[in-house]
Amino acid sequence: MILQNLNQATQECNIGALNFNLGEVRAFLFENKWYPLRATINRASELAHENNNLTTDRALVQLVYLGVWTRIKDVTFHNQLPITLNDNEKLFESNKLAQKILILTK
Predict the structure, then answer these.
(1) Is 43 exposed, middle or buried (0-12, 13-18, 19+ CB in 10 A)?
(2) What is the pTM of this model?
(3) CA torsion sign, 48 to 54 to 57 to 58?
């Protein structure tokens, strides 16, 4: 799987074309949106003609292999669309990232 596969899978999710479980789902933050981890990575793997029946933990490993900086948390999805961060959440996530950069550069 390559980043292009992930981008295509997230685009499918953006238009509601990616099926995933609703309710509380493990998600990853990517381009200011929370995406369902397992469903998105399984779709990206399918696009790459790789194993697309990954567990949530294995999907997380695949995401790490791509080298994408992200955050993971459980998010409640009410429909088949990613959850866009609001301005307060963007500020919070920016501050979290700044703290991590500060730690790394000390």
Answers:
(1) buried
(2) 0.88
(3) negative
